[in-house]
Design a protein that fits this description.
With 468 residues, the chain is an alpha/beta fold. The chain has 19 helices and 16 strands. The strands form four sheets. It has a six-stranded mixed beta sheet with strand order 4-5-15-10-11-14, sandwiched between helices. Strands 9-6-7-8-16 form a five-stranded parallel beta sheet, with helices on both faces. Bound molecules: pyridoxal-5'-phosphate (PLP). Pyridoxal-5'-phosphate binds next to helix 11.
Length: 468
């Protein structure tokens, strides 16, 4: 399998190179040259398989030429054995034709584990094969940082530096990062806000000499390997809730659109998906786009579902490329316009096509809280703030509502205990393996928001670890 960039001006790459590259050199995002397809019979055969077996079946065509089946199977088994329970992604029924897919049974209790744990193992395998090392630098406002640290801890070929804004992440979120004491993990609390963290990371990537000397890489959802691992649970859920060949819809609490795009990929591979429903908080750029055909960024609001507080959905570029029949020139023109003016508009014909696949609904914090309260009252089921938006959005879909719909539950309620308590009166407990989180030793360095200070800190640490 070869990969092409959405902007059409970067070299075609094999899976290994796409894995290590992240963003394409022309500023675009990589995706497979063609979509592998499964027949209805092949999909039905997956019904008797374990999660791990489905994962190998679904992902093998994407790594073909880079990784063989036995190796992929070993990596998948190692990845999902750290997930709690027999089924890494259990389904719960909430009502007639209404289901929740629990994607919070990984080590950091958010759906990002399903892809990042796999990415960590993949990095390990490819780096060992090539005898290379990698430095990962990332900024986090909460969830991504801990999932990335858990995925990369104790891996010899990787050093990971995660910047978070000092005092601006929740205590659970901070401790999930800083209590990992592995030698290759470096937490930095920056005296600034999340934008300062992100600007620092961008500046480090723009510093080409630094970037090349330390083999800098990223773990954000522009990395194709993450999307690929997320396609798996769309197959898994469909096999569980629908009779063979029958359609199913999904509802997805959305930020960067990586998860929705994975659902779109599953559909291209032959899964009979009817609608993909985007759930948003007050940061509703995608909902406004679906309504008006105009993409226009605004300031970011802080909400009770912080992992969806985004200004731009970076993965939407892949979807738009597809909707434009992979016309890289047309896509580049829209992206250039967006960069220059902060907005772009698309034709009515294109919007008809997009609306044929996706719906969307927004929920502010108040509505989200009411949803959590109502689902608890009616069903006795606790939702976190993100998952509640998924469940709420399921009710907003158009088309045939007799089709089963699966809402993706992207975080464990105990990750956002205050919001859940306020909505239901119940304080959700952390699972046993995290019960002592509040007593664990922490390690973290506080640094000023100053480029040279931060760069110098990273270089010193890398020298100490004999990586520079
Ligand atoms: C990251 C995240 C999201 C948003 O997912 P995208 O793929 O960026 O759209 C939703 N919920 C939770 C809990 C998250 O951590």
């Amino acid at each position: 399998m070869k990969y092409i960039s959405t902007r059409g001006k970067a070299p075609k790459l094999a899976f290994d190179d796409v894995l290590l590259t992240g963003l394409a050199r022309d500023g675009g995002l990589y995706l497979p040259e063609t979509w592998p397809k499964f027949s209805a019979d092949e999909i039905t055969e997956m019904k008797s398989m374990s999660y791990e077996q489905v994962a190998v079946k679904v992902m093998l065509p994407f790594v073909e030429g880079s990784i063989d089946e036995a190796t992929l199977s070993k990596i998948v088994d190692e990845t999902y054995k750290v997930f709690k329970g027999d089924d890494p992604a259990p389904i719960k029924q909430l009502g007639d034709n209404e289901y929740v897919l629990e994607l919070f049974h990984g080590p950091t209790l958010a759906f990002k584990d399903y892809a990042l744990q796999f990415l960590g193992h993949m990095f390990d395998h490819v780096l060992a094969k090539r005898n290379e090392t990698l430095t990962i630098v990332g900024a986090t406002s909460g969830d991504t940082g801990s999932a990335a640290i858990e995925a990369c801890r104790d891996r010899d070929a990787i050093e990971i530096f995660i910047l978070h804004p000092e005092g601006k992440v929740s205590e659970v979120q901070r401790r999930q990062m800083t209590s990992v004491l592995s030698d290759n993990v470096h937490n930095i609390a920056l005296k600034g806000n999340f934008d300062d963290c992100q600007n620092t990371v961008k500046a480090l990537f723009a510093d080409t000499q630094f970037r090349d000397s330390v083999h800098l890489s990223a773990v954000n959802s522009i990395n194709w390997c993450r999307i690929m691992a997320q396609v798996v649970y769309y197959f898994w859920a469909t096999l569980k809730v629908a009779s063979p060949g029958k359609p199913v819809s999904f509802s997805i609490p959305t930020g960067n659109f990586g998860n929705v795009f994975a659902g779109y990929v599953a559909k291209q591979m032959g899964l009979p998906i009817d609608r993909l429903v985007v759930g948003a908080n007050a940061n509703d750029i995608l909902i406004r786009f679906i309504e008006t055909g105009r993409m226009e960024s605004k300031d970011v609001f802080e909400t009770s579902s912080p992992s969806m507080d985004i200004q731009v959905s970076s993965n939407f570029e892949r979807f738009l490329f597809e909707m434009l029949d992979r016309d890289a020139e047309a896509l580049s023109a829209l992206m250039d316009e967006y960069k220059a003016t902060g907005k772009f508009a698309v034709s009515d014909a294109l919007m008809d096509r997009i609306r044929g696949l996706i719906d969307g609904e927004r929920f502010d914090d108040d509505a989200t809280s009411k949803l959590i309260g109502k689902v608890y009252e009616d069903r006795g089921y606790l939702l976190d703030t993100h998952s509640a938006i998924g469940v709420g959005a399921a009710g907003a879909r158009r088309g045939n509502t007799d089709i089963p719909i699966v809402a993706l539950a992207t975080a464990h309620p105990a990750k956002f205990p205050d919001a859940v308590k306020a909505a239901t009166g119940v304080r959700p407990e952390l699972p046993d393996f995290l019960a002592d989180l509040m007593d664990r030793e922490e390690r973290c360095h506080t640094l000023d928001y100053d480029y040279d200070t931060i760069k110098g800190y990273i270089e010193t640490k890398l020298k100490g670890r004999h990586k520079l």
